[in-house]
Amino acid sequence: MKQMLGSMVIGAAAVLLVAACGCVMGPTPDVPDDMDPADEPTGARLAAIILQEDPFQQWGEFPERQGSLPSVLPHGPMSRVFINGRVESALADFEGRLPDGSIIVKQNVGTDPQVTEAALTVMWKVAGFDPANNDWFWANMSLEGRIASEGRIPSCAGCHGGARRNDFVFVHTFR
Ligand code: HEC
Question: Which of 9, 26, 39, 49 is most buried, most CB within 10 Å of its CB?
Fold first, then answer.
């Protein structure tokens, strides 16, 4: 009897664990119909790009937002915004949307219990990924590339949707 009770407790713990993981990780995003599953972007791929292949610390910044500045929740309390070459090339020639391959990294600096986002919040433009939200792939990750959330994140796209006419970007007005 004692043994049975023990395995029941372990069983219940396992069920709870699975439920908790499912909740944290959320559903896996579906691949859009017109996208080859092999091209589906991932947070791991994005982390490899910005941390190894083309380190974001060497990128430029928006002309009017240079260095660490006070930021708003859920970002902050201070942050610095880096833009890759694709974004930079669109500064003088903006067609309403940033080009495919554009990446914007917001490095959140300092701590505040109210800040919910991880060290790096990233927007990555991937053609065909999410047409309803200008094809932005969103990611929330640590400086070491540990992914907290990725993909079509409703909170990111929802709040940044306030800047929909500026391709979901707040800190720089393209035109
Ligand atoms: C409640 C609103 C809100 C949510 C949720 C939010 N952001 Fe932001 N984000 C902002 C605001 C406002 C700014 C610009 C002000 C600042 O410097 O903090 C910003 C700036 C950024 C920038 C710099 C480019 C820009 O748009 O100005 C990136 C990159 C970014 N956020 C990524 C993310 C990601 C990824 C998520 C989800 C994990 C997210 N954000 C969630 C409001 C939000």
Answer: 49
- Is the N-terminal amide bond of 77 cis, ω within 30° of 0? yes
Confidence (pLDDT) at 110: 76
Compute the distance between CA of residue 85 and CA of residue 67 in angstroms, rounded to an integer: 18
Gap between the Cα atoms of 113 and 18, Å rounded: 27
CA of 162 to the centre of ligand 1 (A): 11
76 — pLDDT class (breaks 50, 70, 90)? confident
**Which ligand 1 atom sits closest to the C-alpha of 121?**
35
Token pair belonging to 173: 């007005």
Q: How far is the CA of 171 from the centre of ligand 1 (A)?
A: 9
9-47 confidence digits (pLDDT tens): 444 444 444 444 333 444 445 566 667 776 789 999 999
95-110 per-position pLDDT tens digit = 899 999 999 999 988 7
Yes or no: say if 80 and 67 are a contact pair by the CB < 8 Å rule: yes
**Does the beta carbon of 117 sit less than 6 angstroms from any atom of ligand 1?**
yes
Q: Which residue has the tokens 């908790």?
A: 20
